[in-house]
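ingest -> validate -> predict -> emit
validate: passed (alphabet ok, no gaps, 293 aa)
predict: started
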Amino acid sequence: MLGRAARQVLLWTSCALVLAACGTAPRTVPVVDRTTPAKPPSGPAATAGRESSRLIDADTYIVKRGDTLIRIALDHGEDWRDIAQWNSLEDPNQIRPGQVLRVTRPGSTAAKPADSGVAQVTPVPAPSQSASRPLGTPAPAPTTPTPVPAEPVAPPATPVTPPAARNDPASERVEWGWPASGKIIENFHETRNKGLDIAGTPGDPVLAAGDGKVVYSGSGLRGYGQLIIIKHNNTFLSAYAHNRAMLVKEGQAVRRGQKIAELGSTDAESPRVHFEIRRQGRPVDPAGYLPPR
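emit:
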């Protein structure tokens, strides 16, 4: 057994070692970031940029199943023969789903005006009189402006332009007339009816609603029966459906009020003329363009 003196020496040594350990600065352990890196975004947010590169511009159209060249031309306000020519179609009836067609005249897209390069100078306002007036000088008395008499408002010219036509450029406006004199039996609706249905007796005259050129005369558009389409300018087409007899040919120039067909009931429940106005291929309400009866 150790003696008393030896045990005291051992105790003192242990205490000294403990105190030395407590006074030593702790070591720093490096921190390693082991978190999982964020995954790249997926879904619509990730594909938005890629999808934008797949969009078709306003000059072209991708053919869908069931499309016909007549339908595409009507929906874009063009002559189907022009679309066939722009796309070098040997057989206009042979178009296939997924085919990309040009639907505007080459070179017709309006270019944006180029920058003139002239710097715009912002005028600097002249210093006020109060800033240049010496101290102690009284301010001039305010002057009362002379009232300017208001110009009389001129009455509107006659005939009054229909409300919907007022937004069209003057060069593209059409002097519209009614295609038939019967009673309206179905009004325009954006989804149910793309024009006006006017009742009548078989054989009643169907009149051209405006000056233009016949771009289609036939029965190749399902649901329209015997159909005539007139192109009035680069903005407007008009369509006349369910005719009993066709009195004009494609390419023929017609005048407003000219008899172009006989009213009938082809592809319709009763004798009528279905009349449409298309503005840049989009159906619009004819009531906003036709004159009051």
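DSSP finds five helices and twelve strands in the chain.
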